[in-house]
Specification:
heterodimer; A: alpha/beta; four-stranded antiparallel sheet; 8 helices; 10 strands; B: mainly alpha; 11 helices
Chain lengths: 265, 267
């Protein structure tokens, strides 16, 4: 790991880059439910900088997935806007890709074909596509599984493929919607480790949705703590623990306890 | 990697043959003991002889001798044209109406209404419209095969998990390209079911269409044999249609597997 990452005691201003990649401005989302209006998100303002790993933490129903869908472009906000490098982002596109919670790989394509899917539009020569796919197969440790079908591999491996197929497009922001929630504890820890390695190596900006306090504290540079009715950001917290993070250190546990306490209220 | 099927044991391999062989044995038994008179059900050997003549005899040697090839050719042309027409209209229309609610609302009532009309009701009308001959048969085959092809394509397209479209959209797939890269492969298992059902019905309506005064074709032979009192030829015709239907189904699946990896990999 780079020295700058090893000791993230600094605020974002001291990070390698100051560039604001993603700006969420005054986003509000209102759903019409049974002749009534339900405000799911209210006055959300967030700025994400290049290379930052930001966790959206909140209990289910606080609107964190809705916010992710709006950023991804799957849903339009009722008010406010999403700016990507200063430009409004409306439609979904390869500049901000999603790793879904559920299995969203194409079941009729092999692991390698799934990873290559997003490159189809690029009109690259076959050899370049193959080289790039091989590089990412290697990065997520699935080299021997390139010709397997999604149904033939485990849940953890599927999420590795899901990660590879979007990282290969080098999105400006990678959006992750509780991607490891369905995995067992051991696999989840492995995936977190893999994700941090890739984040570091590719200098990838990541917005990670989770309801798991430990996961947020393990991963994040910054935790956005969301509350519901209506969904708002209550706290914007910089996590200044050194990396790699040890779960059994007093500082780690204290932060977890603090967030858990906040989550309960 | 194509998944290997587990090796089949002897019973698995023989299982499909048990019923036909058993029926044949029963047929032998009732014929040998003369439980059923031969003018209702001829002896299997008589039928076998008639079948051999029909398939391999020299034309003119006996009634129906050697006609099989030309009858089969005529019938195949009608099935393929009728079924092809049903597929060419049914799949695009089905996929579109499965994806666009407005199209579905526009045509589903009409389609479901027409679907409940038994195919035979169309026969008199088709004869008035198209006269006696190949066009009437093709019309009937196409009409009958259309419904299962259309309905399965529609439900297949409707049931595609929206997450696949979201995944496609975020990876930069446009709507039109998505129709071929995502929608069709994802709906392929349903479409395959529709094609198989449609092919089966196509054979059924082929015979219906050929019952009315066309000179050749497997259905025409059956009808002709009834007039001539040749029960053995009727039985031969029935068996041949069953065999041809099975072969067509087999070839259809083979062809689809060859052409579409979604069929190879998702069944």
């Amino acid at each position: 790991m780079k020295a700058s990452r090893l000791k993230v005691v600094a605020s974002a201003a001291m990070r390698p880059s100051d560039e604001e990649v993603l700006k969420i401005q005054g986003v509000r989302k209102v759903f019409a439910v049974n002749n009534a209006y339900l405000t799911v998100l209210d006055e959300i303002n967030v700025t994400v900088r290049q290379g930052e790993l930001l966790c959206l933490l909140g209990r289910s129903g606080c609107g964190k997935t809705t916010l992710l869908k709006i950023i991804a472009g799957f849903m339009l906000p009722s008010a406010g806007k999403i700016l990507l490098s200063g430009r409004p982002a409306l439609r979904p596109g390869p500049d901000r890709c999603v790793v879904f919670q559920e299995d969203a790989l194409f079941p009729w394509l092999t692991v390698a074909e799934n990873i290559a899917f997003g490159l189809r539009g690029k009109a690259w020569p076959r050899r370049r596509v193959k080289a790039e796919v091989d590089r990412f197969l290697d990065l997520v440790g699935l080299k021997e599984f390139r010709d397997y079908l999604p149904r033939e591999i485990s849940g953890g491996m599927k999420q590795r493929v899901a990660l590879a197929r979007v990282l290969i497009l080098s999105p400006q922001v990678l959006l992750m919607d509780e991607p490891f929630a369905a995995l067992d504890a051991q696999t989840r820890a492995e995936m977190q480790h893999l994700m941090l390695t890739l984040w570091d190596r590719l200098n990838q900006t990541i917005l990670f949705v989770t309801h798991d306090v430990q996961e947020a504290v393990t991963l994040a540079d910054r935790v956005l703590f969301m509350v519901k009715d209506p969904g708002r950001i209550r706290q914007d917290l910089h996590v200044r623990l050194p990396r790699p993070r040890q779960k059994d250190t007093p500082a780690f546990m204290a932060l977890c306890r603090e967030l858990l306490e906040a989550l309960r209220t | 990697m194509e998944k290997q099927q587990p090796p089949k044991n002897g019973f698995d391999r023989l299982a499909p043959l048990i019923l036909p062989v058993g029926l044949l044995a029963l047929w032998f038994a009732v014929s040998e003991t003369e439980t059923v008179p031969t003018y209702l059900l001829p002896h299997p050997l008589t039928v076998g002889q008639a079948g051999y003549n029909y398939l391999f005899g020299d034309p003119g040697e006996a009634l129906y001798a050697g006609r099989f090839a030309s009858d089969l050719g005529a019938s195949l042309v009608r099935v393929i044209l009728g079924f092809g027409l049903a597929v060419a209209i049914g799949i695009p229309l089905g996929v579109i109406s499965g994806r666009l609610a407005i199209v579905n609302r526009l045509i589903s009532t009409t389609v479901n209404g027409l679907r409940s009309v038994p195919g035979i009701c169309w026969l008199p009308l088709a004869m008035v419209w198209f006269g006696i001959g190949i066009r009437t048969t093709i019309f009937l085959v196409a009409l009958a095969a259309f419904f299962p092809v259309y309905l399965n394509a529609a439900s297949g397209a409707r049931q595609v998990d929206p997450i696949y479209y979201q995944a496609g959209a975020m990876m930069g797939v446009t709507r039109l390209r998505g129709a071929f890269a995502i929608l069709l492969p994802a709906a392929m298992p349903h479409i395959t079911t529709g094609l198989r059902l449609g092919m089966g019905i196509a054979w059924a309506y082929l015979v219906l269409g050929e019952l009315t005064g066309v000179p050749n074709g497997l259905g025409a032979v059956i009808m002709d044999a009834r007039m001539m009192g040749r029960i053995d030829i009727i039985v031969v015709g029935i068996i041949l249609i069953a065999v041809m239907g099975r072969i067509c189904d087999f070839l259809l699946i083979r062809g689809l597997k060859l052409g579409f990896k979604s069929v190879r990999r998702m069944n």
